[in-house]
Predict the structure.
Amino acid sequence: MLMAHPAVLRDLIAEYEVLEALHAEDGSPQARQRLDDIAYTLCVSTGTRDIDAALIAARHQLPGARAEDDSVVAG
């Protein structure tokens, strides 16, 4: 699997979190589309199928992620 550059992942995570905090899913069609696009890109970049798993996987790939990080828990 190709791995996204950590800077790209960091930017995608940050933009997703901002849009989510601003409730983009309830906003304009453009804001909803951007949120969907970022979620899709994160999923593709991490080899996952849903945004929650993608965010966990992306954070785990960032420099400084710890192996004992409890955000990566088998469910």
